[in-house]
């Protein structure tokens, strides 16, 4: 799946002030719910927190890929947030995280979910893309870096 199909300006936030794992997941949940009438903010948060309990989605290099499934969602949705300062997210490399690429997928889409996660992880393994996201001062800059 092409990232252009799942990211959008109204679900991207740059340099959010945050100080905890729970708070960033709350911010992501709020952004998701405020941009889709068919999903509930608390359901998004619950889904993301349940996934984090299974193991951190912090993949290293200051990047996390929180994700969850939602019953009322019709198509994959991405929420992209950078935060300042970077926060402890129990990442695999024990480094703080400042780039969050959250994925919400329809409950029944298991295979598509894994392919989309792999695609996102591949894009975020590109050092130039990550540098561009970290240099971003606007949501437009983040989208441009991801969709380049």
From TrEMBL:
It holds the Pfam family PTS_EIIA_2. InterPro entries: PTrfase/Anion_transptr, PTS_EIIA_type-2_dom, PTS_Nitro_regul, PTS_SugarTrans_NitroReg. It comes from the Bacteria. One of its GO terms (biological process) is phosphoenolpyruvate-dependent sugar phosphotransferase system. Gene3D superfamilies: Mannitol-specific EII, Chain A (3.40.930.10). Residues 5-148 form the PTS EIIA type-2 domain. GO terms for molecular function: protein kinase activator activity; protein-N(PI)-phosphohistidine-sugar phosphotransferase activity. This is PTS IIA-like nitrogen regulatory protein PtsN. It comes from Alteromonas profundi. The gene is ptsN.
């Amino acid at each position: 799946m092409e990232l252009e199909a799942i990211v959008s300006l109204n679900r991207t936030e740059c340099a959010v002030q945050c100080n905890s794992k729970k708070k960033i997941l709350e911010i992501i949940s709020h952004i998701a719910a405020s941009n889709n009438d068919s999903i509930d903010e608390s359901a998004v948060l619950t889904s993301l927190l349940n996934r984090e309990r299974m193991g951190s989605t912090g993949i290293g290099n200051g990047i996390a890929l929180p994700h969850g499934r939602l019953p009322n969602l019709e198509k994959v949705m991405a929420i992209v947030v950078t935060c300042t300062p970077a926060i402890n997210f129990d990442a695999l490399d024990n480094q703080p995280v400042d780039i969050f690429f959250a994925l919400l997928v329809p409950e029944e889409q298991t295979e598509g979910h894994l392919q989309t996660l792999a695609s996102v992880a591949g894009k975020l393994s590109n050092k130039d893309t990550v540098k561009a996201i970290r240099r971003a001062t606007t949501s437009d800059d983040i989208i441009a870096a991801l969709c380049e």
